[in-house]
Write a structure and sequence with these properties.
This is Ferredoxin. The protein has about 120 residues and is α+β, with helices and mostly antiparallel strands. The protein is about 15% helix and about 25% strand. It has one domain (about 10-110): Ubiquitin-like (UB roll).
Length: about 120
């Protein structure tokens, strides 16, 4: 899936998304628009509820960073509070709404963990 930005192809980054069934697909997104990972996943038609609209209040955009977590930094306290309330979370769990698309995601592998809306 490709989320295109009409002005610049050179600032596109690529990362891989693993869905709930274990299928992997490369996603390309603009690194210079300030989008969150949640916004890109929704635009790419992945089943991400994002009930709170990206405010880190619901954890329905829960993802696990399988590869490339080192550049993302640590989860914030607000993010951790939501993750800790989930029935299952992992040391590499994050909320997609709290991760900004940028060079740090280049080559990363992200597994969808939030509620499946399909």
């Amino acid at each position: 899936m490709v989320l295109m930005h009409s002005n610049s192809i050179s600032s596109m980054i690529k990362f891989t998304v693993e869905d709930h069934d274990g299928n992997r697909q490369e996603v390309e997104a603009p690194a210079d628009m300030g989008l969150s990972l949640m916004e890109v996943l929704k635009a790419s038609e992945y089943p991400v509820l994002a009930t709170c609209g990206g405010m880190a209040l619901c954890a329905t955009c829960h993802v696990e960073i399988l590869e490339g977590k080192d550049g993302l930094g640590e989860a914030t306290d607000v993010e951790l509070d939501q993750l800790e309330n989930l029935p299952e979370y992992f040391p590499t769990s994050r909320l997609a709404c709290q991760i900004r698309i940028g060079d740090i995601l280049e080559g990363a592998v992200v597994k969808l963990r939030g509620e499946d809306v399909v």
